[in-house]
Design brief:
Chain lengths: 204, 204
């Protein structure tokens, strides 16, 4: 049984499409998932971008929103263009990392991304984050404060450092061993790669 | 019957994949094609890039070559990573535009892109261009000189200006009326769009 490391940036539109699809597809393919929330912000800063490339390159950004509408429609995923973009995903990502440790990470990530890309909620807002946690049956206020406390908080930095080491440059990114697949369009390819017999190695 | 305007940059790796696929798929879908060679260079310069973004953003470039290998393999398209990238596509694009006027544009584009991405030939070299034209049964030297002569030469500038007006930012780009599809991954989506009944307009 293969494994995919699913590197998710919670502010990323195309990551949202994958988050809505990956669990059913992975179950069907008998592929296990490791959820790896990280932050693209330091990675973008390192190449000179202070914000999302969809903001910096206006024509690409305009296209992306139209493509998101079409793709969400094609895939049957509810989607509403957020009125603010990009939103700060750091607090949500810290909570997601705590959730991954405790077994509710995948569910939290899906709920918080739905709040963002379906409900246009501000995922940097403590009230929004706590209400998502409450919906999961957790004590939202306590969990949120725990996640942003200093010791736990460094988990996001470590995760992002590992992403940089892997030369991840965008999201979503799927790693199957050393093999990188970037973008919601490559989710099926990553699943195929994870399930190919080990003797059928790619040999160009 | 729908129509796709197929905007091709002859130095673009992913455009090569579409060039190898689009004629069979369009025929099967009863979609007609308008071949629109253009140059991405002025478009990249306008956003501050002096060369390909795959050169400027090294991690993305490294990923792209690996993805190209995998995608070419998956699609059954012969591919060898060029030893020089990006190559100057301007002379080839001028010839391609003359070819589109005269009915041999699609064939020339396919042959010259195969020379580039399968044969690692320098598509800026007059000898390479003339030999591709000769293979088409044309008088390579005459046609090449005709294509780069001043009056004809401005066709590439006009084509690129139209691409800018359409807010094209990358290649390949498929336009179905006002609807833009970017990337080899969207070729099938563009074909679907071109063949949907006109009463089934997208309404988010």
């Amino acid at each position: 049984m293969g494994t995919i490391d699913f590197w998710c940036e919670l502010a990323s539109p195309y990551t949202y499409l994958s988050v809505c699809r990956i669990e059913a597809l992975a179950t069907e393919a008998h592929v296990s998932l490791r959820w790896r929330p990280f932050s693209l912000h330091p990675i973008f800063k390192a190449v000179g971008w202070q914000t999302s490339p969809f903001e910096i390159y206006a024509d690409k950004g305009r296209y992306m929103w139209r493509d998101m509408e079409r793709e969400a429609d094609r895939l049957g995923i509810p989607f509403r263009r957020p009125t603010v973009f990009p939103r700060n995903s750091v607090p949500a990502s810290k909570i997601a990392l705590l959730g991954v440790e405790r077994g509710w990470g995948a569910l939290f990530i899906r709920k918080v991304m739905q709040a963002h890309f379906e409900g246009d909620r501000d995922i940097a807002s403590p009230a929004v984050l706590e209400s998502v946690l409450d919906e999961l049956g957790l004590d939202g206020a306590t969990v949120r404060q725990e996640a942003v406390a200093t010791a736990q908080s460094s988990a996001l930095r470590r995760s992002t450092e590992e992403a940089i080491r892997l030369r991840i440059f965008g999201a979503p990114t799927f790693m199957v061993g050393e093999e990188m697949f970037w973008g919601n369009d490559r989710l099926e390819n990553a699943l195929d790669w994870a399930t190919r017999p080990s003797n059928a190695k790619y040999d160009p």
